[in-house]
Design goal:
Radius of gyration: 18 Å
CATH class: Alpha Beta
Structural class: alpha/beta
CATH topology: TIM Barrel
Number of strands: 11
Strand order of the largest sheet: 1-2-3-6-7-8-9-10-11
Distance between the termini: 30 Å
Shape: globular
Strand content: 15-25%
Order of helices and strands: HHHEEEEEHEHEHEHEHEE
CATH architecture: Alpha-Beta Barrel
CATH superfamily: Aldolase class I
Helix content: 25-40%
Largest sheet: 9 strands, mixed
């Protein structure tokens, strides 16, 4: 299986900073503003997702709040004693007896896996060249029209089905913030209309669905059908409150530095699920393995 590196909020902040002029310093992107540059935007998806979320709410179980959590997307291993919630890659098997969250790279192709996607679903510049997330060497997926979003969602829905069939209780679709690295080709509305499709499908399969990072879009989470948040380095960057404002205590925090863990624990240690992992999210037995809690 592939080894995944964390999608850190530090990367998102750098991307947002680099495009500040383009978005006029506004982090809270509105649907009306984006729709003007996205004539094919499927804005009805948000309301449909919200309706589906309500319809299926009884069948969905959210992760317990303020729980002992482990982030295992870099490789599965026996969870430490006391862990109640674990995230693993969709290719792994859920940990018996725990609440399991299924990690899926939903907005970008895996490194060197462009061939797994139809050519027209990879985001391309006007000259036909593919737009990559430079740091992670992953091709961005094209979410610019309703038809493309539906086609991309169909492939990712198959991974969500895999998560449900294996017994996961929730799904964590990564790279919600990829529009900030799209060279202006994607908008926040594109991302929201697409994730609403994933949320509707996850709920149909009885899975809760997380918002991964992207605090600037958290205000719309109910309309989109997003149930809880997974926030990387919100302690490091002092943005955990941006998530709790909209998700309450349904927030899972992953830190990668001692400072980030200290900041998160000092303010949120009695409310949120918080863990520090090493940057590679290494399994037990790896020399780089780090795991600490409040």
């Amino acid at each position: 299986m592939n080894t995944f590196l964390p999608r850190r909020s530090a990367r998102r902040l750098a991307a947002v900073t680099a495009t500040t002029a383009a978005i006029a310093g506004t982090l809270f992107l509105t649907a009306s503003a984006d729709a003007s540059s996205d004539p094919d935007s499927n804005t009805e998806a948000s309301s449909r997702a919200g309706a589906n979320a309500s319809t299926n709410a009884a069948a969905i179980t959210l992760p317990p709040t303020h729980a002992n959590f482990d982030y295992q997307i870099g490789g599965a291993y026996t969870p430490p004693a006391g862990v109640k919630v674990v995230t693993r890659d969709h290719g792994a098997t859920p940990a018996p007896g725990l609440y399991n969250i299924c990690y899926v790279n939903a907005f970008q192709a895996q490194p060197k896996a462009e061939g797994d996607w139809p050519a027209d679903l990879l985001l391309r510049r006007g000259d036909g060249s593919i737009v990559y997330d430079g740091q992670w060497k992953e091709a961005l997926l094209d979410l610019r029209t309703a038809d493309k979003r539906t086609a991309v969602a169909r492939k990712v829905d198959a991974l969500i089905d895999e998560c449900a069939s294996k017994g996961f209780q929730a799904v964590e679709p990564d790279n919600y913030d990829s529009y900030t690295r799209s060279e202006g080709l994607l908008t926040g509305t594109n991302a929201q209309d697409y994730i609403a499709l994933l949320a509707a499908h996850a709920h149909q399969r009885g899975l809760a669905i997380a918002q991964k990072n992207t605090a600037e879009l958290a205000a719309n989470r109910k309309a989109l059908g997003l149930d809880f948040a997974v926030a990387e380095e919100c302690g490091q960057w002092k943005e955990c409150g941006d998530y709790t404002e909209h998700f309450g205590n349904d927030v899972i925090v992953i830190e990668y530095t001692a400072k980030g863990l200290s900041n998160a624990c000092s303010k949120w240690g009695d409310k949120l699920s918080i863990v520090r992992r090493d940057l590679g999210v290494s399994p037990v037995g790896d020399g780089k393995y780090v795991r600490k809690t409040c």
